[in-house]
Amino acid sequence: MSLWQNIADTLRAEIARGLWRPGHRLPPEAALAARFGVNRHTLRHATRALADEGLLYSRRGAGVFVAAQPVEYRLGERVRFHRNIELAGRVPGRSIDSVATRACDAAEAKALNIAPGDPVHAVDGVATVDHRPVALFRSVFNARLLPDLPGALAGQGSITRALAACGIADFIRARTLIKAAVADESQAVRLQIEPGGPLIRSESIDVSDGRPIERGIVWWASERVTLALDHGD
Amino acid sequence: MSLWQNIADTLRAEIARGLWRPGHRLPPEAALAARFGVNRHTLRHATRALADEGLLYSRRGAGVFVAAQPVEYRLGERVRFHRNIELAGRVPGRSIDSVATRACDAAEAKALNIAPGDPVHAVDGVATVDHRPVALFRSVFNARLLPDLPGALAGQGSITRALAACGIADFIRARTLIKAAVADESQAVRLQIEPGGPLIRSESIDVSDGRPIERGIVWWASERVTLALDHGD
Questions:
Q1: B106, B173, B232 ranked by CB distance to A174: nearest
Q2: Which of these ranges, A9-13, A161-165, B53-57, has the smallest mean pLDDT?
Q3: Where is the HTH gntR-type domain (chains A, B) (predicted)?
């Protein structure tokens, strides 16, 4: 095994043992290079490999930090936020910042298979895991199919339960599109991450009885979440 | 419909008609605001909505640009790069920068279900669509199962064909993990994007006869590719 791989394995084991905790800064490059008796180039090779794995991340000018163990969030036809997070042994939460009923734009119309200008309920908020923000979401619902959703959301903690109260007993996810984005100032503040940090952007369509009912866009803080697909399932 | 939605719809239609082409800069904010007779705040609401849809992107200090229509890349158990891109009506390509046989690190060992230090072939390169780079890839293969892969790769343009030449007639994708990342200088140069731009990072395991043969990490330029999941399939 090469020198940098040995260093990466040592640091990986130390992180696994809890010697370096999530959010903590590693010692400066020069100090680590001296500890392992290598030059900075070799050391950087090791820390870059660990960053590639998601164990470390660097903040420009501030150093290299240990990433929190991300939640593995499984995507699939029957994805539900609360159940997914609970299955991972973590505590799910959602807070809704605003519910607005308004005319939809062209992209929303296309996703929901309605006409531009038709009414939608737009729900914006933050999803949490273990009481820390992990994602911003914007869900847009066909308001003609779900006239009472805003009232139901006020009474229920969960979108799934609010939909059930509106007569949508079941729904499935038809499609998910995935891109990446870079957090702007406002997203960074709400997610408690650094501006310019990486976000996974997922866009999904939920369908009930063959009709699209919800188009959801979620901006996930990549340092806290990994989306997982088990293709055989 | 609100004012900003009307502006967004107008710009969206103009982009669809080809009036603003991929890579071109929109007129300055003040000029666009004047054209629509709105203030900059309203205009920015519209351009931000189009950026959220992936139609526009901004470069700090340089303005707002029209994004190229991204390739939709479908993930699934039977994903193959060449076939996937061809099905989208585009021209696939791959160039291999290096093939190295070396000891694997702990993360590679875990993914391939072998021991740390066991030999792997590491293949690094660039994937292209329509002769433009869309992704960097690093594929690591179990070298004990595929001793002749480096030779086969030299003779074949495609990894799928090289695997076939090594006796792997078929393989399936078992799992994909998705994160986001921010392009560093070297990734940006190779992908011909701006440093700090968003990357989708996918990590997948390919399996043949129940044994993991390949762990692939791909860094996709998000402005050029959207990963798509059709959950019902």
A1: B232
A2: B53-57
A3: 1-69
CB contact under 8 A, B177 and A1: no
Q: What is d(CA B26, CA A143) in angstroms, rounded to the nearest whole number?
A: 34
CA distance A224 to chain B (A): 9
Residues forming CATH 3.40.1410.10 domain(s) in chain A: 71-228
Residue of B nearest to A217 (CA): B52
Predicted complex ipTM: 0.80
Q: For chain B, how many residues are written? A: 233
Tell me, yes or no, if A188 comes closer than 8 A to chain B by beta carbon: no
Give me the mean pLDDT over the B193-218 stretch. 94
Please report residues of B whose CB lies closer than 8 A to that of A76: 231
Residue B20 vs residues B67, B68, B71, B95, B135: alpha-carbon distances, Å: 10, 10, 19, 31, 25
Q: Which CATH number fits domain B3-66: 1.10.10.10, 1.10.3720.10, 3.40.50.12780, 1.20.1290.10?
A: 1.10.10.10
Cβ separation A232–B174 shorter than 8 A: yes
- What is the location of CATH 1.10.10.10 in chain B? 3-66
pLDDT at B181: 94
Burial string for A207-230 (b: 16+ CB within 10 Å, else e) reads bbeeebbbbbbbbbbbbbbbbbbe
Superfamily of domain A71-228: Chorismate lyase-like (3.40.1410.10)
Tokens of B202: 């996918």
A162: pLDDT confidence band, cut at 50, 70 and 90?
A: very high
At B130 the pLDDT is 85
- pLDDT band, very low/low/confident/very high, at B103 (cuts 50, 70, 90): very high
